[in-house]
């Protein structure tokens, strides 16, 4: 019950981690089924229809329900601590963010239970995603599930922007902010400008499917290319929304475990902002083959290649940070170091794909599949593994086992390269993406077998990671505040796990790597910026849960409004929009209650804070 | 901290909406939210611009639109933006009753605007310009309808705030709420200016 009503950002972070991890396992299972089917020629592990569903749900789940939430988990758990804040700007809205994501994801996955699963790809191109080719409710699950989950992401982004702008500790200027906080900041800005476009895309999709709209119906003047524009003006920034936090994590981990200040900090900040900006300028490189014409193709081609410059700056800065450092090869750092060459490989193929004429050749081949898995798995997922190993003691008060962590790294890392490296060659040899099987004698058999074996190795790595989690949580909570002893940023200056109010006294920040600076000056703790006093906290609330539950119910109400039920009562209920109305009533009713009853919150008194600090009052 | 003092003395600061961190957070967050809303409407506008000539078998914009009605609606909505400014000015002078009156007039004008829009849609549907008629009609009803839904939401919201104002008075908690609602209302107006230009004027010109 405590977990249903919590508005504590650290607990919400843990909720995000659990839910995101759960969906990661589902998405991974789907991936393994895909690779099992493609292990050899003409296998029939799953039918062609099921394969399409698996492919669609794997992409959608991994992007929206696994990667994004785990990023939000780390941002929630760490960003307020890094800037010396007691809380986030909107604790209540933060809880709404989690619950809408959760119920949206749940709604999407109910499709498996109903047996009417989205199968038009995660990009949901029209007319394939329209009612003619994706009948039943399949793509409605996609549109409404993502719509609800998208609300959560958008409000989460706004929450972090305001938190970072308004709630930094005294002395924490923008140019003293840790890199992870910077990347969270830029990522949140990207979310703010990308997700509303997705919302419109999903609304237009729903309008076409449910109310016979014509946005994408060619016969009545609509156009499918419009969908591609709307989707990618969201979808391209989305990949930077995913990768920038990984960049932030890598910066923190590498500098901590090299015992060195991050090399070129200000250029890192500049590069992050520039990548964020350019991320919005390049969406049409997904559409080179739609016939935009040579001028548009050239411009988008050049803009895309430009992104290699700030990214290159980052890569060299990480290498220079390690250069001459006292490197400790912890599990977290192994993931971070493994990230660098892997991500560079993904970046190189990205520049290859950015060349429009060459793209006509690579387009929709396994080369593309290899490229984006190199950046998203080899980049983001390695980054997230690194971050989870690094901050686990801060989140749970107990460290993960180092030996098991290293084992996870090696199985996952080797498995990853086995899976996706060979896919470059499969693509160049002509294997198209999204095919559910292939004939013998095309020369693709061995490489596909290797790829599938690699995928199972990644599965083994993930299982070892789960074992590690279970093992670590069964240990006594003994993590110190500065668990790695080389902690540089503010989160390491307070106990692990952080107390409810984060900082007993708001710290005074006197430079970049604030905690490290104090340690070098011979201080064991941060200098406080205020005397100890009662701390105001927001009250827990069940309303975020009900608001999201209402949307969940309303989603079904709208989806099944024109369904043919066997049961007349059910049919009446849905077709008269009673179910949809009840759902919306729950949501708006909760909003009304929230608006009318002001939350006075409560205070944590001095005595209690002193008790936590081991001081007898 | 300063909010504590003011509460204690029962004196409200000159800018009650910015007196607390919560209030400042609310206002900044709302500006950012409006940035997101801009993208939302921008995308709808792009879709409309791409599809506005694709009328299939349906009517064209030139055949449908009647500018006098739209001009009246525009007049009502833009005036309501002004009355919401007068409400905020009254807030800074801490005249709660005056504030409520101006907010009430804002809501009233908004409701009249919405009434005209509903009549307009009703009229078009009778002319055979249904949601499913053509890509033009779908994108038209989506864009203008989204704006209308925003107006409707704003009406409910501000009405609720007036009720709160009577119950709780003007405090550092209610002030940011009202300030933010007025930002929202201005935003709706700005969007309407674009709709008036892009949808109706450009539609009439062809």
UniProtKB/TrEMBL annotation, chain A:
Residues 1-510 form the Cytochrome oxidase subunit I profile domain. PROSITE patterns: COX1 (PS50855), COX1_CUB (PS00077). It comes from the Bacteria. GO terms for cellular component: plasma membrane. The chain crosses the membrane at residues 12-34, 54-79, 91-114, 141-167, 179-203, 230-250, 262-283, 295-320, 332-356, 368-392, 404-426, 446-471, 542-561, 573-593. Keywords: Cell membrane, Copper, Electron transport, Heme, Iron, Membrane, Metal-binding, Respiratory chain, Translocase, Transmembrane, Transmembrane helix, Transport. It is an enzyme of class 7 (translocase). This is Cytochrome c oxidase subunit 1.
From TrEMBL, chain B:
InterPro entries: Cyt_c/ubiquinol_Oxase_su3 (IPR024791), Cyt_c_oxidase-like_su3 (IPR000298), Cyt_c_oxidase_su3-like_sf (IPR035973), Cyt_c_oxidase_su3_a-hlx (IPR013833), Ubiquinol_oxase_su3_dom (IPR033946). Keywords: Cell membrane, Membrane, Transmembrane, Transmembrane helix. It is a multi-pass membrane protein. The chain crosses the membrane at residues 28-49, 69-88, 100-119, 139-166, 178-202. It is found in: Cell membrane. The keyword Membrane applies. GO terms for cellular component: plasma membrane. Residues 28-204 form the Heme-copper oxidase subunit III family profile domain. Belongs to the cytochrome c oxidase subunit 3 family. This is Cytochrome B oxidoreductase. It comes from Paenibacillus swuensis.
